[in-house]
């Protein structure tokens, strides 16, 4: 992408009109696909990310059929998901911890039930990237949407859809961070409730168990919980 084309995208993003910002975002996503040298320059990626209005992305994620036609709402949410996933996968890790970036966690979770299967997977992958760091994990754990999503996807999802990315998100949070005892108990109970269903044993659970057993301080009560839950599977 030439400097002039990049400057054009920046100008569109800063014009303020919805159509201009929407067009600027599409230009940037296309640039990432067609100009791989951009992804190899972390400073340039951070600069581009700083020009993207996060509040606009959040507004796109919150678009519902009542705010626009069904197709417009679908396109808006899918664009926001695509932009977020594309940039979070190449941003320096420090950028994933910023308030501007982690402010996207809850809107992504809330939009999951209103997007198609593939954007659901992309959303969960983006959440995994943010959940690997304390600020993002805290945002996700504070969301009321997560227990609902776990129940929905584990009971009704399919293995090639969002189910396994969701389990990976759970694993990243559960294994990667020290949870407060009260939150840990609540978290385990929520997962246990959703294991106790007549479904094939989740493949991602095996990876989860392997990682958890490396954490001596939690592995006994975790394994006891899982053994109890899987008796009925």
Q: How would you describe what is shown here?
A:
- It is a single chain.
- The protein has 233 residues and is an all-alpha fold.
- The protein has a domain at 107-230.
- Helices cover 73% and strands 0% of the residues.
- The chain has 15 helices and no strands.
- The chain has helices spanning 3-15, 18-34, 36-39, 42-51, 54-61, 70-88, 99-102, 105-111, 117-131, 134-141, 145-156, 163-176, 181-195, 203-212, 216-230.
- The longest helix has 19 residues, at 70-88.
- The model is unreliable at 197-204 and 206-233 (pLDDT under 50).
Main structural class: mainly alpha
Which series of helices and strands comes N to C? HHHHHHHHHHHHHHH
The total of beta strands comes to 0
Question: What integer value in Å does the Rg equal?
Answer: 19 Å
Tell me about the largest β-sheet: none
């Amino acid at each position: 992408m030439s400097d002039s084309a990049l400057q054009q995208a920046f100008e569109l993003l800063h014009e303020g009109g919805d159509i201009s910002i929407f067009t600027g975002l599409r230009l940037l996503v296309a640039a990432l696909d067609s100009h791989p040298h951009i992804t190899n320059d972390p400073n340039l990626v951070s600069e581009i990310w700083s020009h993207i209005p996060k509040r606009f992305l959040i507004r796109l994620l919150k678009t519902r059929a009542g705010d626009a036609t069904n197709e417009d709402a679908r396109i808006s949410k899918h664009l926001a998901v695509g932009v977020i996933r594309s940039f979070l996968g190449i941003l320096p890790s420090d950028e994933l911890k910023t308030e501007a970036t982690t402010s996207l966690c809850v809107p992504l979770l809330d939009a999951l039930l209103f997007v198609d299967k593939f954007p659901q997977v992309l959303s969960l992958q983006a959440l995994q990237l943010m959940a690997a760091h304390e600020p993002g994990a805290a945002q996700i754990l504070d969301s009321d949407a997560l227990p609902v999503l776990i129940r929905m996807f584990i009971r009704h999802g399919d293995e090639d859809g969002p189910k396994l990315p969701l389990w990976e998100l759970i694993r990243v949070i559960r294994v990667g961070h020290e949870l407060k005892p009260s939150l840990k108990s609540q978290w385990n109970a929520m997962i246990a409730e959703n294991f106790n269903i007549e479904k094939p044993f989740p493949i991602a659970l095996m990876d989860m168990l392997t990682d958890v057993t490396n954490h001596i301080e939690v592995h006994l009560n975790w394994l006891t919980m899982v053994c109890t839950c899987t008796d009925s599977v």
